[in-house]
Amino acid sequence: MRHFFISPAAVHSPRWQQAFPAARLLNSPTELPPLSADDTVWLLIDDTTDSALAACVALNARVVALTRFEDAAEAQWALAEGACGYLHYLATPAVLVQVHQVVRHNGLWLGAELMRQLVLGSARRLPLGVPGLRLQDLTPRERAVAEAVAAGKNNKEVARELSITERTVKAHLSAAFEKLGVRDRLHLVLVLAGQA
Q: Residue 173 sits in a domain of what CATH number?
């Protein structure tokens, strides 16, 4: 499992190697070695990297788009092009590690505010209700956790709001994912938005 951060040399962040000490910092996708499905490419995107994102995605590794300025339209574009995550390039090492955990388990990463914007835009186009979805199968606590996450709160915020531990939040969220047949937080948000 290797990490490759691609950006102009002037834009490298020391946080990347704090999160992943063995990470390689590259200036271009052409510098990438042969990749495996376990590798993660972190690509700083801008107006000139359309083809770079496509090239990285074509290598069949996980690609996380990094940006200098978070923007909902850019996030949607990056995800549509095959990126599995989108975040600010100056994210803390702890957030970078969390993003990696999400995407390595086939999840999708967006920051809370971008998630809200995406959900609001998508919810207007969703049909009401999802056939076979049984919210009543969730325990009251699982439902409370799922609804808080769908509102864009992170695990720590949910734990504080519900007076439970983060570990308990994760357990309830995992149970809700399984019962509802959803893959990740974005899928949960979209499914619950369709229930409104």
A: 1.10.10.10
Half-sphere exposure of 5 (CA within 13 A, CB side): 25
Gap between the Cα atoms of 76 and 72, Å rounded = 6
For residue 36, the domain's CATH number is 3.40.50.2300
- b or e along 143-181 (b: 16 or more beta carbons within 10 Å of the residue's beta carbon)? bbbbbbbbbbbbbebbbeebebeeebbeebbebbbebbe
Tens digit of pLDDT for each residue in 66-101?
999 888 888 888 988 899 999 999 999 999 999 999
Phi and psi for 50 in degrees, rounded to 5? -50, -50
d(CA 103, CA 94): 14
If asked whether residues 13 and 68 sit together in one domain, one would say yes
Structural domain of 83: 3-110
pLDDT tens, position by position, 12-33: 899 999 999 999 999 988 999 9
- Asked if 52 and 149 sit in the same domain, the reply is no
Contact in structure between 88 and 70 (CB atoms under 8 Å):
yes
Q: pTM for the complete prediction? A: 0.66
